Amino acid sequence: MGEPGKHRILMVSDFFYPNFGGVENHIYYLSQCLIKEGHKVVVMTHAYQNRSGVRYMTNGLKVYYVPWKPFLMQNTLPTFFGTLPITRTILIRENISLVHGHQAFSTLCHEALMHARTMGYKVVFTDHSLYGFADVGSIHMNKVLQFTLADVTQAICVSHTSKENTVLRSGLRPEKVYVIPNAVDTAMFKPAPERLNRDEIVIVVLSRLVYRKGADLLVEVIPEVCRLHPNVRFIVGGDGPKRVRLEEMREKHSLQDRVDMLGAVPHAKVRSVLITGHIFLNSSLTEAFCIAILEAASCGLLTVSTRVGGVPEVLPDDMVVLAAPDPTTMVHAITRAIHMLPRIDPQDMHNRMKKLYSWPDVARRTEIVYNRALKCSNPPLLDRLSRYLTCGTWAGKIFCIVMIVDFLLWRLLQLWQGPSKDVK
């Protein structure tokens, strides 16, 4: 058993290292801070290429790369019950007291939370995304989220906009949802030792080159900015299906000497790219928070971003220029940012970011949510099933059947392998 007041937490998501992104960084940094506070943290994710089995990371962070291969956008194939045996084994072997799932789009997260609740564990869910309500994909995802959150103990969102979105999508009671923003490692993301010359203005873009991140918007914005400002140069880092469109734009407008395409940039080299620029450009069409903006601001860059999702909550007004996600408005915002540059002090911006965002603070606030979750009672199966029935006329009945089957499979595993150390 661990120390009194200390937790043994299982973090679960399809998104973890060696993949890079906001969710991956969040899980890693949060885990490291919780370990330093004396908690035990274990991560469960799927296998990445030849990375399978148990691995250890900094400060003894134990990672289970379960032998499930991703089939779409780093997500594992939904099995409903296929992950029950291995989830149960990890929970018992590591003597877990609480399960923390991350990201609504993660199949492994939804399945692990379902199995954990069946076994009587307290579960916490963190939503890192914003979804709509009209398109087919969002409708299906919202129904899955409604199923998972029907019996979740507590939930966390990374912005107030994200909380409002999650509550509307899932039907979860607002008092069960907490807002804890992301943070940035300010020790890693520091400004350049010397201030850059402003004879040539460098605008940095670091993003996955996909539709959701506004790559099509960049195709229209970059040529116009280059036409209006002969001293502006762009550095574009990132890869994705929209990279071809950006390269075609560069060829069409003969901007090879003013638009550098770096391709995928490893996270360890992100700072070295950021400190070569004056302005950071984020063109996302939807964003719950955007850690990239924090990293850029911590390096002393002025940010120009689309006014979407939780982005307006991230930085003070004097650190960011917000614009509607259309080309004309974005070009005007970049022009305004260029005129603001003489008033920007990178070191001062970095020092302010230290006070505004820190992972230890995120960990302390998350620990409070854990404590509240562990104080909640465990309702019997019939009471839990009544919650699923409220999820829809037909969906509610299907969800109930899924949970009953999961419960019976768990009982069979207990008979076969023995009930020792199970929560119930």
Automatic annotation (TrEMBL):
One Pfam assignment: PIGA
EC annotation from Swiss-Prot or TrEMBL: 2.4.1.198
Transferase among keywords: yes
Residues covered by the Glycosyl transferase family domain: 192-341
UniProt pathway annotation: Glycolipid biosynthesis; glycosylphosphatidylinositol-anchor biosynthesis
GO MF terms, alphabetically ordered: phosphatidylinositol N-acetylglucosaminyltransferase activity
GO cellular component terms attached to this protein's record: glycosylphosphatidylinositol-N-acetylglucosaminyltransferase (GPI-GnT) complex
Keyword Glycosyltransferase listed: yes
Residue stretches making up the PIGA GPI anchor biosynthesis domain: 46-135
Enzymatic class: transferase
UniProt keywords, alphabetically: Glycosyltransferase, GPI-anchor biosynthesis, Transferase
SUPFAM superfamilies in UniProt: UDP-Glycosyltransferase/glycogen phosphorylase (SSF53756)
Gene Ontology terms: biological process: GPI anchor biosynthetic process
Positions in coiled-coil regions: none
Residues spanning the signal sequence: none
Matches recorded under PANTHER family: N-ACETYLGLUCOSAMINYL-PHOSPHATIDYLINOSITOL BIOSYNTHETIC PROTEIN, PHOSPHATIDYLINOSITOL N-ACETYLGLUCOSAMINYLTRANSFERASE SUBUNIT A
Name by which UniProt lists this protein: phosphatidylinositol N-acetylglucosaminyltransferase
Classification lineage: Eukaryota, Viridiplantae, Streptophyta, Embryophyta, Tracheophyta
Gene: LOC107770496
